[in-house]
Design a protein that fits this description.
With 470 residues, the chain is an alpha/beta fold. It has helices at 10-20, 34-38, 46-50, 55-63, 77-87, 95-108, 119-130, 137-143, 160-166, 182-185, 192-203, 210-226, 246-257, 264-285, 301-307, 322-335, 351-358, 382-395, 415-433, 441-460; strands spanning 25-27, 146-150, 174-176, 178-179, 231-236, 288-293, 295-296, 315-316, 340-345, 370-372. Strands 4-5-6-9-10 form a five-stranded parallel sheet, covered by helices on one side.
Length: 470
Amino acid sequence: MDENFLLNNETAIRLYHDYAKDMPIIDYHCHLSPKEIFENKTFKNITEIWLYGDHYKWRAMRANGIEEEYITGKASDYDKFLAWARTVPMTIGNPLYNWTHLELQRFFGIDEILNEKSAPQIWEKVNALLNSEGFGARDLIKKSKVEVVCTTDDPADSLEYHLKLKEDADFDVLVLPSFRPDKGLEINRDGYQEWVQKLQQASGIEITSYEQFLQAIEQRVRFFHAAGGRVSDHAIDTMLFAETTKEEAAAIFAEALKGNKVSPEDEKKYKTYTMKFLGGLYSQLGWAMQFHINALRNNNTRGFRQLGPDTGYDAINDDQIAKPLVRLLDAIEQENGLPRTIIYSLNPSDNTVIAAIIGSFQGGGIPGKIQFGTAWWFNDNKTGMLEQMQALSNLGLFTRFIGMLTDSRSFLSYTRHEYFRRLVCSLIGEWVENGEVPNDLEFLGKVVQGISYNNAKDYFQFQGKEALVR
């Protein structure tokens, strides 16, 4: 993992070092805490910043035979770190191996390989740095040249810390909310009625009908917009569509509000109409809409009951997405015009399907208006990223791709942008070396810088602190 890591030819080396390496970052989808950013949270040791909440690492540790006591249990932070250090050598071939060492190199200046033997020394060195000046949450964001952070936020959230950060002249990074209304769409999920009550309180609109529900949702979208939000995000684990009317959706909502479960067909109808409403609203406000499709969540019932969601018990789903996705996009397009839309599937078998579908809805004078989102979650590895980029380049315009995001809860995960950029340069360099594209470094450098940063800057049109994203 030297300076030319993943750069497999001379063209790739020049593209990365001369064009990609120093570009800023727009992290348009992550799960960082705005409270921790506002407070410039500091970390007492490497376990806290590295292993708390990182279900990628937890899965690997379980696969390596580590007892749960040393993963999410009551073992000491040092013992948990040692358990991870024992696991790291076993992760060769997994991106965790590369990410681990990139983070040690870039943030802490440590070039040693992490294993059980080196762990005590690395523990002491990293912890000494973490307890010195310049290693708080804000500092790590700034060191990574991040200009925009889009967190993931429920419609009922107060956005207290986003609003405080917006007024904080000492921190020139935009920290913006993303509108994540999943709890308002999952009409059959336990807690739906309680969530509607939270929405009522947050919006100040009494919700006794579907019309009032939509009014409350719109009020919250506009509140997010006023706070600088320009992105929504939808976890659509199963892609659904059903022809319906507002009257049908209203009757289904009324039934759910009584605490009753609705039929699968009625759930489709409710979700379809609500998504059409939201899509029209996003289009009106100039937002980008994200669909994350085909996750299979909470597969291990015992693990879920013990630890809750997002703890490493998820997988890839294989539901078919083409027809319902096209019908939903078309319905929004016909009624209100599609907003900028980014589509991700957790199943790499859907790559060519999505790459083809987005071509059916481009237009409006917006370059890459409908995006095939970057390789996500189980796919943000070398193979997954290259397969996603190849599918996009085969069927669309790779040059208009808005690139990488972290989708992470860790302030150290920005090295994933470096990993991604190195692969972009390697792929384009391979095309040059094969004689498939001209060896025009000035043009290709602009392409690389576009995918690294400029395309996202132009696409999202974030507005906020004057110093950023001019």
